[in-house]
Amino acid sequence: MRFLALVQNEIMKINSKKQSVFFLYFCLVFIIGIGIANRIAPDLYATREYLKFAHSLASFLMIFVTLFAIVLGAQSITDEFKDGTIKQLLLRPVSRRTILLSKYVANLVVIIGTVLILWAASMLIDVLLFGMVRSGGLTFGTVCKAYLYELPDSIFMMTLSFFIATVFKSSPLSITASVFLYIAGNVLSSLLPEKWGAKYIIFNNLNLKVYDPNPLISGGMEPPFLGMSFGFSIIMILVHIAALLLIQIVIFEKREVY
């Protein structure tokens, strides 16, 4: 119960920040704006069909979510040092490990909640502007998968940003390094030969859409290396997340706080 109270408190901290509210408003305005543009100029955007609009927005919205997750992960711990509240936080009758994990879980809850809100908003605007007459092979499940397959990428990038921020106590460094790896990591890691164990590199495992047999989701793409599967990539993601959390917990527990 104490852990849940800590998580709830961290979620309240996140929601009290203007940037969190601004991000949500920005995404909602973006969805409405693109929807109206599709309604007014269907020949230009070619998504004037039920579900096609929500499906086409998934990748763009999840890019925004990932960038938000990176900032969220970086600031959740560094803001405590910057605002001088870290000492008060550590005076609580709970371990440092519990405090760190409560922040991490709170970030997870906010990210998942944000994705659900944006998914629901895109579906609602889709119905309001384009009705419910479906054509083509898109289904409700296809649209849901488009968001779900992108979610582990956002969660890992938040974990990476959270890790860098905890280790170096620098929000700018964490955000810069994480954004760089988010943009270039997949490209750079895919250039490594398979014999060097490239399939075990996390960035080659974050695109889960390639494992879906539906071309509307996978886009015709295939796994970058032989021997990779959906289960393999999920395991690689979980192993990397667990390793980053374990390392930063050890570092945070031994850190001197002045």
From TrEMBL:
<feature type="transmembrane region" description="Helical">
    <location>
        <begin position="230"/>
        <end position="252"/>
    </location>
</feature>
<protein>
    <submittedName>
        <fullName>ABC-2 type transport system permease protein</fullName>
    </submittedName>
</protein>
<keyword id="KW-0472">Membrane</keyword>
<keyword id="KW-1133">Transmembrane helix</keyword>
<feature type="transmembrane region" description="Helical">
    <location>
        <begin position="53"/>
        <end position="77"/>
    </location>
</feature>
<feature type="transmembrane region" description="Helical">
    <location>
        <begin position="160"/>
        <end position="184"/>
    </location>
</feature>
<feature type="transmembrane region" description="Helical">
    <location>
        <begin position="21"/>
        <end position="41"/>
    </location>
</feature>
<feature type="transmembrane region" description="Helical">
    <location>
        <begin position="127"/>
        <end position="148"/>
    </location>
</feature>
<dbReference type="Pfam" id="PF12730">
    <property type="entry name" value="ABC2_membrane_4"/>
</dbReference>
<keyword id="KW-0812">Transmembrane</keyword>
<feature type="transmembrane region" description="Helical">
    <location>
        <begin position="98"/>
        <end position="121"/>
    </location>
</feature>
